[in-house]
Design brief:
Strand content of chain A: 25-35%
Number of helices of chain B: 7
CATH class of the largest domain in chain B: Alpha Beta
Number of strands of chain A: 15
CATH architecture of chain A: 3-Layer(aba) Sandwich
Largest interface: A-B, 83 and 95 residues
Strand order of the largest sheet of chain A: 11-10-9-12-8-1-6-7-13
CATH architecture of the largest domain in chain B: 3-Layer(aba) Sandwich
Helix content of chain B: 25-40%
CATH superfamily of the largest domain in chain B: HUPs
Helix content of chain A: 25-40%
Distance between the termini of chain B: 54 Å
Strand order of the largest sheet of chain B: 7-10-6-1-4-5-11
Radius of gyration of chain A: 21 Å
Strand content of chain B: 25-35%
CATH topology of chain A: Rossmann fold
Number of helices of chain A: 6
Oligomer: heterodimer
Number of domains of chain A: 1
């Protein structure tokens, strides 16, 4: 049983978002990098739980990024996982990234590929589906629960106003979100062990990116809050109705 | 050369986000001087010819029973075959649960560039550039698509639905539907509530409400507004409210027209889930609550006093006794 967990390096949630080079690049000055929370808290932890139940489970991690992603992948290895791959390329085209990961997925013949439901920087929710298409596997997105019984996975996924339970045979690609597992903190033993776990750096396969970020922009600043006195709730209703036209 | 809009359904009814995608797709078609057409998979209980009101001239339907449930792999094969048969050059999805499962796969199959989470019409003055929301609502990126076929998934609640007149021609499309490898064993829907991601108005409660027994004032306000209810992460974690109501960075991300936050301090992780809301109202007794900085309107006051008054005033406005 082999699991491939896709991890991405993202700016910490509390980072101030700014751009440089005439708004064409993300300004990473002073930014603290973390493992994309959906990758870490849900898909990686769920993979580790499966390994804790069945020691024969092998977990590989993969990320697409330059050397600055090494610290993040070491942290992921400190939580768990056996080996990791870093594809030495920097891209924000989801197809380019998916094509790199699909290459690793094909070579390793994994039974299960986990991604987070999206990254908190590009919010595309696209890489998982693309990997699935490239390796011709079923794809269950936005999973809130994942159970494995032999070679059959039972996956609960979010739908509008509820959830749906799917049964599917491996191999499968699943994008994970809240509910699949609970966040863990790496312990000292894990951090020490991570230092000697293999981190294979591979050069990317040649793929043409299909999209390109031309520029970034920040939303217009809010005009500032209009405070209404607690004794004059009728005024709030008037503003929402007449000014904001929201009710 | 046409624009093809994928029409998504739940229980045989067209979703609100699909009407937004239809309006958007029709406007993209106008911009490109071409026609907008719609594609619907499975059976429908709605009048699909009436989709003409949203600007499509034709609705292609593939009414194979096995398409009544989503299997991303099967949908991808069918949609990509349809796009090729119809000869569409722009394919539009809603960036909802179905769109997130399918649009990216379809893009790969068609060797098409994808902009996932678009929030504005493409700029075609120099290439094909689509604005999308990034950094969890904290910024936008203008993304250029280089491929011949382009796939866009539109963020729900980011494009206003416009309904005009007219009917579309309905045409059955004959496309082979592969066998599904995914079995749906259960569907659990919270009945009688407005789905959070589709709601125009959301009323949300936080720790300031002190306990689940106090949620009546939130439910009453939501009821008169026809709103969905949501909660902050601590409330979900403490099981005061069901997990699926949790909005924020790790919960559900929403973008309603109106978000009313009651007793929520407004941590950055919470804002990441709601900052795309058009109008934000914050009710909190702490004037220093960071949420006020992100709000359009606010009341510094005790929720237990303010909310019943607010519900009563809205009843008055709506003429509800």
């Amino acid at each position: 049983m082999k699991i491939l967990v896709c991890v991405s390096k993202t700016p910490d949630t509390t980072s101030k978002i700014a751009f440089k080079d005439s708004n064409t690049k993300f300004d990473d000055a002073g930014v603290q990098w973390i493992i994309n929370p959906y990758d870490e808290w849900y898909s990686l932890v769920r993979a580790i739980e499966l390994k804790e139940k069945d020691a024969s489970v092998v977990i590989h991690l993969v990320t697409v990024g330059d050397a600055s992603a090494d610290a993040v992948i070491r942290k992921a290895l400190a939580l768990g996982g056996d080996e990791s791959y870093r594809i030495n390329a920097d891209s924000n085209d989801s197809f380019y990234i998916a094509a790199q990961i699909a290459e690793i997925a094909k070579q390793g013949a994994y039974d299960l590929v986990f991604t987070g439901k999206e990254t908190i920087d590009y919010n595309g929710s696209a890489v998982g589906g693309m990997i699935a298409e490239l390796i011709d596997a079923p794809y269950i997105s936005l999973a809130t629960k994942f159970e494995l019984n032999g070679s059959t996975a039972t996956v609960t996924r979010e739908i509008e106003g509820g959830e749906e339970v799917n049964e599917v045979n491996l191999p499968v690609v699943v994008s994970c979100q809240k509910g699949v597992a609970e966040q863990r903190i790496p312990n000292m033993r894990g951090i020490m062990a991570a230092r000697s776990k293999p981190l294979h750096v591979q050069e990317p396969v040649t793929v043409d990116a299909l999209t390109n970020v031309v520029s970034y922009e920040l939303p217009p600043a809010k005009a500032g809050v209009k405070l209404v006195d607690a004794d004059n709730v009728a005024e709030l209703v008037r503003l929402l109705h007449e000014e904001a036209k929201a009710i | 050369m046409s624009v093809l809009i994928f029409v998504d359904q739940a229980d045989g009814h067209i979703k609100k986000s699909s009407y937004e995608a239809l309006t958007y797709g029709a406007d993209v078609a106008k911009q490109l001087n071409t026609t907008a057409e719609a594609l619907l998979l499975g059976a429908s209980k709605d009048d699909i010819a009436a989709l003409g009101k949203y600007g499509v001239t034709k609705v292609y339907q593939i009414s194979n029973e096995s398409l009544n449930h989503l299997d991303a792999q099967v949908y991808t094969q069918v949609i990509a075959d349809a796009v090729n048969q119809i000869g569409a050059s722009v394919v539009i999805f809603s960036h909802n649960q179905t769109g997130k499962a399918v649009a990216s796969r379809v893009a790969v199959k068609l060797k098409a560039g994808l902009v996932a989470g678009a929030c504005a019409l493409p700029d075609t003055s120099n290439g094909f550039v689509v604005k999308k929301s990034v950094f969890s609502g904290k910024a936008f990126a203008n993304v250029s698509i280089a491929s011949a076929i382009k796939v866009i998934s539109l963020n729900p609640n980011s494009y206003k639905t416009v309904a005009g007149e007219g009917n579309a021609a309905v045409e059955a499309l004959n496309i082979n539907v592969p066998a599904s490898k995914v079995k749906v064993t259960a569907v659990n829907k919270v009945s009688g509530e407005v789905p959070l991601t589709e709601a125009e108005i959301v009323v949300s409660g936080g720790r300031g409400l002190k306990g689940p027994e106090n949620w009546g004032i939130i439910l009453d306000l939501a009821h008169v507004l026809g709103a969905a209810t949501a909660c902050s992460r601590p409330v979900g974690d403490a099981h005061w409210r069901p997990h699926h109501e949790h909005v924020g960075q790790t919960g559900i991300q929403i973008a309603p027209n109106l978000y009313i936050a009651v007793g929520i301090s407004g941590a950055i992780q919470h804002l990441a889930g709601v900052n795309r809301s058009k109008v934000i109202v914050v009710i909190n007794k702490d004037p220093e609550a960071p949420f006020f900085k992100a709000a359009d309107y606010g009341i510094v006051g005790d929720a237990f006093e303010v909310l019943p008054k607010l519900t009563a005033e809205i009843k008055k406005l709506k003429g509800i006794a």
